[in-house]
């Protein structure tokens, strides 16, 4: 299976992906496109920038198409598109949305990690809280539009892990 973990920043995507990796023998983990691009020398803007998200989106589509089976992808093209939309709401992203729909057909399962109420992350630890909330809202609106099985997880890390593993085993 190709599993992608989706959500805004500071919701626990990477932590969940790493936890799932420990319980899914034979799976590999693909780090967020941001970190992969950064390690290859891409110079990101200091503040979130729409063009940086276009670059990550393109990298993510390539990553999905080139990855094999039994992979967990930390972050999703849908997330990156949501960030782009929030940062540049006047930009026409229809062609990117269609590209995301096409590439998401290669995903077997999408795990959506939303911002919870009450928030599990202490407010002082959240970078760019307004951006995080806006992206979370867009993801809630869009997450079902890509023709992929979606599970929305909540609760503690072990609860989230168990929710995902239950769906995978069924």
TrEMBL record:
Coiled coil: none
Alphabetized InterPro entries for the sequence: NadR/Ttd14_AAA_dom, P-loop_NTPase
Record domain NadR/Ttd14 AAA: where: 2-160
Transmembrane segments: none
Protein name in UniProt: NadR/Ttd14 AAA domain-containing protein
Upper classification of the organism: Bacteria, Pseudomonadati, Bacteroidota, Flavobacteriia, Flavobacteriales
